[in-house]
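Exercise 7b. C-alpha coordinates:
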Protein backbone atom coordinates (compact mmCIF):
# COMPACT_ATOMS: atom_id res chain seq x y z
CA UNK A 1 0.00 0.00 0.00
CA UNK A 2 1.22 3.48 -0.89
CA UNK A 3 0.45 6.58 1.14
CA UNK A 4 1.29 10.07 -0.05
CA UNK A 5 2.09 12.24 2.92
CA UNK A 6 0.91 15.77 2.24
CA UNK A 7 3.69 17.82 3.82
CA UNK A 8 6.65 19.77 2.54
CA UNK A 9 7.96 20.38 6.09
CA UNK A 10 11.15 18.34 6.54
CA UNK A 11 10.90 18.21 10.36
CA UNK A 12 7.38 16.87 10.15
CA UNK A 13 8.22 14.39 7.39
CA UNK A 14 10.95 12.87 9.59
CA UNK A 15 8.48 12.43 12.43
CA UNK A 16 5.80 11.01 10.14
CA UNK A 17 8.22 8.49 8.63
CA UNK A 18 9.22 7.25 12.06
CA UNK A 19 5.55 7.02 13.08
CA UNK A 20 4.40 5.20 9.94
CA UNK A 21 7.54 3.14 9.29
CA UNK A 22 6.49 0.15 11.43
CA UNK A 23 3.35 -0.32 9.30
CA UNK A 24 5.36 -1.41 6.28
CA UNK A 25 3.52 0.90 3.91
CA UNK A 26 5.37 2.72 1.16
CA UNK A 27 5.53 6.44 1.88
CA UNK A 28 5.89 9.18 -0.67
CA UNK A 29 5.91 12.88 0.03
CA UNK A 30 5.01 16.00 -1.93
CA UNK A 31 8.63 16.01 -3.19
CA UNK A 32 7.78 12.89 -5.23
CA UNK A 33 4.93 14.82 -6.89
CA UNK A 34 6.53 18.19 -7.70
CA UNK A 35 3.71 19.31 -9.97
CA UNK A 36 0.99 19.25 -7.32
CA UNK A 37 -0.68 22.61 -6.76
CA UNK A 38 -0.08 24.03 -3.28
CA UNK A 39 -3.02 23.52 -0.95
CA UNK A 40 -4.17 26.74 0.73
CA UNK A 41 -4.67 26.12 4.45
CA UNK A 42 -7.59 28.49 4.97
CA UNK A 43 -9.71 26.43 7.35
CA UNK A 44 -10.59 27.71 10.81
CA UNK A 45 -9.84 24.40 12.55
CA UNK A 46 -7.03 21.81 12.41
CA UNK A 47 -9.58 19.21 11.27
CA UNK A 48 -10.78 21.34 8.34
CA UNK A 49 -7.22 22.01 7.16
CA UNK A 50 -6.09 18.40 7.51
CA UNK A 51 -9.11 17.10 5.60
CA UNK A 52 -8.73 19.69 2.85
CA UNK A 53 -5.04 18.83 2.32
CA UNK A 54 -5.63 15.08 2.33
CA UNK A 55 -8.58 15.25 -0.07
CA UNK A 56 -6.83 17.56 -2.55
CA UNK A 57 -3.64 15.50 -2.61
CA UNK A 58 -5.58 12.24 -2.94
CA UNK A 59 -7.62 13.63 -5.84
CA UNK A 60 -4.50 14.99 -7.57
CA UNK A 61 -2.43 11.80 -7.19
CA UNK A 62 -5.14 9.13 -7.26
CA UNK A 63 -3.48 7.61 -4.16
CA UNK A 64 -4.36 7.39 -0.48
CA UNK A 65 -3.21 10.66 1.04
CA UNK A 66 -2.42 11.47 4.63
CA UNK A 67 -2.27 15.02 5.96
CA UNK A 68 -1.84 16.35 9.43
CA UNK A 69 -2.58 19.78 10.68
CA UNK A 70 -1.23 20.80 13.99
CA UNK A 71 -0.43 23.78 16.10
CA UNK A 72 -0.06 25.35 19.48
CA UNK A 73 -2.89 26.78 21.58
CA UNK A 74 -1.75 29.14 24.34
CA UNK A 75 -4.42 29.77 26.98
CA UNK A 76 -3.25 33.29 27.91
CA UNK A 77 -3.54 34.24 24.21
CA UNK A 78 -7.09 32.91 23.85
CA UNK A 79 -5.90 29.83 21.96
CA UNK A 80 -3.52 31.65 19.58
CA UNK A 81 -1.54 30.96 17.48
CA UNK A 82 -3.76 27.90 16.74
CA UNK A 83 -4.19 27.30 13.01
CA UNK A 84 -1.80 30.21 12.41
CA UNK A 85 1.08 28.53 14.31
CA UNK A 86 3.38 28.16 11.29
CA UNK A 87 2.88 31.78 10.13
CA UNK A 88 2.50 33.43 13.55
CA UNK A 89 5.26 35.97 12.83
CA UNK A 90 4.63 36.19 9.07
CA UNK A 91 4.10 34.24 5.87
CA UNK A 92 7.79 33.27 5.71
CA UNK A 93 7.09 30.61 8.40
CA UNK A 94 10.19 31.32 10.47
CA UNK A 95 10.44 29.15 13.62
CA UNK A 96 12.83 31.49 15.39
CA UNK A 97 10.67 34.57 14.69
CA UNK A 98 7.57 32.67 15.84
CA UNK A 99 9.25 31.73 19.12
CA UNK A 100 10.45 35.29 19.67
CA UNK A 101 6.95 36.63 19.08
CA UNK A 102 5.48 34.11 21.52
CA UNK A 103 8.04 35.02 24.21
CA UNK A 104 7.35 38.74 23.70
CA UNK A 105 3.58 38.26 24.03
CA UNK A 106 4.05 36.27 27.25
CA UNK A 107 6.63 38.55 28.80
CA UNK A 108 5.96 38.92 32.54
CA UNK A 109 3.21 36.27 32.51
CA UNK A 110 3.75 33.94 35.51
CA UNK A 111 4.35 30.18 34.99
CA UNK A 112 0.87 29.13 36.13
CA UNK A 113 -0.67 31.27 33.37
CA UNK A 114 1.63 29.98 30.62
CA UNK A 115 -0.35 26.80 30.01
CA UNK A 116 -0.67 25.58 26.42
CA UNK A 117 -1.26 22.50 24.34
CA UNK A 118 -0.21 21.14 21.01
CA UNK A 119 -3.00 19.64 18.95
CA UNK A 120 -2.83 17.45 15.90
CA UNK A 121 -5.46 16.13 13.53
CA UNK A 122 -4.52 13.46 11.02
CA UNK A 123 -6.77 13.04 7.98
CA UNK A 124 -6.64 10.11 5.60
CA UNK A 125 -8.33 10.51 2.22
CA UNK A 126 -8.99 7.38 0.20
CA UNK A 127 -9.78 7.63 -3.53
CA UNK A 128 -13.55 7.61 -3.90
CA UNK A 129 -13.83 10.45 -1.39
CA UNK A 130 -13.68 8.46 1.82
CA UNK A 131 -12.17 10.47 4.65
CA UNK A 132 -11.04 9.42 8.13
CA UNK A 133 -9.68 11.64 10.92
CA UNK A 134 -7.80 11.03 14.19
CA UNK A 135 -6.85 13.56 16.86
CA UNK A 136 -4.27 13.95 19.62
CA UNK A 137 -3.27 16.62 22.15
CA UNK A 138 -0.36 17.21 24.50
CA UNK A 139 -0.48 19.60 27.49
CA UNK A 140 2.48 21.77 28.48
CA UNK A 141 3.74 25.13 29.65
CA UNK A 142 5.54 27.83 27.63
CA UNK A 143 9.03 28.49 28.97
CA UNK A 144 10.71 31.88 29.29
CA UNK A 145 13.72 31.05 27.08
CA UNK A 146 14.42 28.40 24.42
CA UNK A 147 15.98 25.13 25.67
CA UNK A 148 17.19 22.16 23.61
CA UNK A 149 18.32 21.50 20.06
CA UNK A 150 16.01 18.72 18.81
CA UNK A 151 12.73 18.96 16.93
CA UNK A 152 11.28 21.96 15.17
CA UNK A 153 8.82 24.83 15.54
CA UNK A 154 7.93 25.73 19.12
CA UNK A 155 9.70 22.68 20.60
CA UNK A 156 12.39 24.72 22.47
CA UNK A 157 9.69 26.65 24.37
CA UNK A 158 7.22 23.82 25.08
CA UNK A 159 7.87 22.32 28.51
CA UNK A 160 6.38 19.01 29.58
CA UNK A 161 5.87 19.64 33.33
CA UNK A 162 6.11 15.92 34.25
CA UNK A 163 9.55 15.69 32.61
CA UNK A 164 10.85 19.19 33.39
CA UNK A 165 12.11 19.26 29.80
CA UNK A 166 11.10 20.94 26.57
CA UNK A 167 10.15 18.92 23.49
CA UNK A 168 13.48 20.10 22.03
CA UNK A 169 15.32 18.27 24.86
CA UNK A 170 13.72 14.91 23.98
CA UNK A 171 14.87 12.39 21.40
CA UNK A 172 12.36 11.68 18.65
CA UNK A 173 11.08 8.38 20.08
CA UNK A 174 10.42 9.94 23.48
CA UNK A 175 8.70 12.93 21.88
CA UNK A 176 6.54 10.67 19.70
CA UNK A 177 5.52 8.59 22.73
CA UNK A 178 3.82 11.60 24.38
CA UNK A 179 3.23 14.15 21.64
CA UNK A 180 0.00 15.32 20.05
CA UNK A 181 1.24 13.89 16.74
CA UNK A 182 2.25 10.59 18.32
CA UNK A 183 -1.21 10.17 19.85
CA UNK A 184 -3.06 11.17 16.69
CA UNK A 185 -0.88 8.77 14.68
CA UNK A 186 -1.43 5.90 17.09
CA UNK A 187 -5.12 6.30 16.26
CA UNK A 188 -4.45 6.83 12.55
CA UNK A 189 -2.32 3.65 12.45
CA UNK A 190 -5.38 1.64 13.46
CA UNK A 191 -7.31 3.18 10.57
CA UNK A 192 -4.42 2.43 8.17
CA UNK A 193 -4.23 -1.18 9.40
CA UNK A 194 -7.92 -1.49 8.61
CA UNK A 195 -7.29 -0.13 5.10
CA UNK A 196 -4.40 -2.52 4.45
CA UNK A 197 -6.68 -5.39 5.41
CA UNK A 198 -9.27 -4.33 2.77
P1 LIG B 1 1.14 22.83 9.93
O1 LIG B 1 2.23 22.41 9.03
O2 LIG B 1 0.13 23.73 9.33
O3 LIG B 1 0.54 21.68 10.70
O4 LIG B 1 1.87 23.79 10.96
C1 LIG B 1 2.05 23.43 12.23
C2 LIG B 1 2.90 24.46 12.93
O5 LIG B 1 2.62 24.31 14.32
C3 LIG B 1 4.40 24.20 12.77
O6 LIG B 1 4.98 24.96 11.76
C4 LIG B 1 4.92 24.58 14.14
O7 LIG B 1 5.10 25.97 14.18
C5 LIG B 1 3.79 24.20 15.05
N1 LIG B 1 3.92 22.79 15.49
C6 LIG B 1 3.11 21.73 15.21
N2 LIG B 1 3.56 20.60 15.79
C7 LIG B 1 4.68 20.95 16.43
C8 LIG B 1 5.62 20.21 17.20
O8 LIG B 1 5.55 18.98 17.40
N3 LIG B 1 6.63 20.92 17.70
C9 LIG B 1 6.79 22.25 17.51
N4 LIG B 1 5.97 22.99 16.79
C10 LIG B 1 4.91 22.35 16.25
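Sequence design result:
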Amino acid sequence: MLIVVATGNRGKLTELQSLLGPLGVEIKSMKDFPDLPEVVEDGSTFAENAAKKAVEVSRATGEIALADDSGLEVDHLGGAPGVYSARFAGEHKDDRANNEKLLALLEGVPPEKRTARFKCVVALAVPGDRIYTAEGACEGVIGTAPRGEEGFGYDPLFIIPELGKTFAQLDLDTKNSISHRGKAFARARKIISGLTAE
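Instructor comment: Residues 20 and 47 are 20 Å apart (CA to CA). Helices lie at 10-20, 46-61, 95-105, 172-178, 180-196.
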